[in-house]
Write a structure and sequence with these properties.
Strand content: 5-15%
Order of helices and strands: HHHHEHHEEH
Oligomer: single chain
Structural class: mainly alpha
């Protein structure tokens, strides 16, 4: 069973906008067996080992500003700056995207779990109050039964019943 199956059981559905279609369809873009010309072996941008902030934002669904904040804080392992035509640009390893994606899934799961826990706590409180009412009713009925038993015993002690006549004896 995969993580997606487990998440689906809890009611979480993946957002198709978060994972970009090129990552989802990566196997379809690889060259078929025997088609290994140098052009076919050249990795395209979807298979690069590092990506820019804009690519990271589009692939993970996390905003570019959040990526910049995380990069500035040093929270993205393996990221580095390179000199580009427009100044320094950040290069983010694709493995860091997986880490961020996993943290998004963990956050979504923890949110779903906290909602589930909240719902369960509410249901538990309701069940406990219903149980208290049912116990009070059961105690009341038990007292009524005890009173009825006492009444029957009192009535029964005053009544004498004749012993049945045995058929083999003559009286």
């Amino acid at each position: 069973m995969t993580i997606d199956d487990e998440l689906a059981k809890m009611g979480w559905r993946p957002n198709p906008d978060i994972v970009s279609p090129p990552i989802r369809n990566m196997r379809r873009e690889l060259p078929a067996a025997g088609e290994t010309t140098p052009a076919a072996r050249t990795p395209n941008s979807h298979h690069a080992t590092v990506v820019t902030i804009a690519e990271a934002a589009s692939r993970t669904g996390v905003s570019a500003q959040t990526w910049r904040r995380r990069l500035k804080a040093g929270q993205v392992a393996g990221a580095y700056k390179t000199a580009g035509a427009q100044g320094e640009t950040w290069q983010i390893p694709v493995t860091a995207l997986n880490t961020i994606g996993a943290s998004l899934v963990i956050k979504a799961v923890s949110d779903a779990v906290s909602e589930t826990i909240s719902d369960l706590q509410t249901k538990l409180a309701t069940a406990e109050s219903q149980l208290a009412v049912q116990r009070a009713l059961a105690d009341e009925r038990l007292q009524m039964l005890d009173q009825l038993h006492a009444t029957v015993r009192a009535l029964g002690s005053g009544i004498t019943t004749a012993k049945p006549k045995r058929w083999w004896r003559k009286d």
